[in-house]
Amino acid sequence: MSLYIGTAGWSYPHWNGVVYPKSNAPGSHPLEIVSRYLGLIEINSSFYQFLKPELVKLWIKKVAGRPNFLFTAKLHQRFTHARVLEEAEVAAFKEGLRPLLKSGRMGALLMQFPWSFRFTAENQDFFIRLRRTFHEFPLAAEMRHSSWMTEEAVGTFLDYKVAFCNIDQPEYTRAMPPTSLLTSGIGYVRLHGRNPANALGAYGRDAQYSGRLRQHDYLYNEGELAAWQKRIEQITRFAERTFVVFNNDAGGKSFVNALQLQAMMTGVRGTAPRDLRRKYPVELAPFDPAYAEQQCLFPAA
After folding, report:
1. Are the C-beta atoms of residues 221 and 256 closer than 8 Å to each other?
2. For the chain, give me the number of helices (H) and strands (E)?
3. pLDDT at 298
4. For the chain, how are helix, strand and coil distributed in percent, rounded to 5?
């Protein structure tokens, strides 16, 4: 089973002292810490700025000790939201991600569309145009409006071999519900949390960074994760690779849930960063190194 579970982004100041030590050792990098525990990172900065190849090469170097670690990345909002496809900008964006392709670390490129991007003939044509523009990359698309669940819409994903991104999000008008669709060799799942304050742009919040932490402040419980486990198992049964990304980064909650789901899916429970275990002593109790020793010393009767 080629399953990769991780978080959306890793460069968060509010993770210092939670996921990362307050004072890192000289020369250490957050990606080195992430790659010890998880198998995937989704690059979210590529949605806001074009990446420099030199920086991407550095990221690849920092995970060199983890040969199975992969990256996914988000397509820049210039292409998905502003719908500008200037040749020079397209070339510049591709150049930034090329090191990932060459190194074999590129899992998928995610086209994330706003809730306002509904299934219409015009938007369908633009979707196909984007697919052709970035044909070099394994593509996935996140649709937040439920109109993309129609047979014709899903057929477009199938015809153009674009992975359907299954999402978990708060309920609101015509919001995409939880799904387990597979439309290419790639399975993709993004879990945004269910905080009612986070309507994923349905009411104009996409462009507002203020309140982001509050919107992304949600910790999935075991029952909610178990429901998604079943959907992900359906996807992995036929997918060549499956990527599961948690986007509830407030307080390091995405890291907690990624560790929990990873253990549930694989049956292998590793450890968790010390500071994170201190912040979430109940949720991460089984991820304490001493826990395994206790289970051996006191086996179940």
Report:
1. no
2. 11, 8
3. 47
4. 40, 15, 45
Q: Provide mean pLDDT across the span 22-51.
A: 92
Half-sphere exposure of 170 (CA within 13 A, CB side): 17
Q: Are 146 and 175 in contact (CB under 8 A)?
A: yes
- Dist CA 180 CA 209 (whole Å): 30
Residue 32, Cβ density class (10 Å: 0-12 exposed, 13-18 middle, ≥19 buried): middle
Tell me how many domains the chain contains: 1
Tokens (6 digits) for 247: 């986007």
Cβ atoms of 85 and 258 within 8 Å: the answer is no
CA atoms of 183 and 143, how far apart (whole Å)? 14
Say if CB 256 and CB 23 are below 8 A apart.
no
**Cβ proximity of 80 and 201 under 8 Å:** no
Q: Which domain holds residue 232?
A: 3-297
Tokens describing residue 185: 């060799």
Name residues whose C-beta falls within 8 Å of residue 165's C-beta, 6 or more positions apart in sequence.
110, 112, 140, 141, 142, 143, 188, 189, 190
* pLDDT over 70 at 52, yes or no: yes
Q: Quick one: which of 3, 44, 77, 58 has its CA closest to 235?
A: 3
Q: What is the CATH number of the domain that holds 219?
A: 3.20.20.410
Percent of the chain whose pLDDT exceeds 90 = 84
CA–CA dist 195, 201 (Å, integer): 13
CA distances from 261 to 8, 24, 45, 252, 265 (A): 15, 27, 24, 15, 6
Residue 206: which of 35, 50, 48 has the closest Cα?
Answer: 48
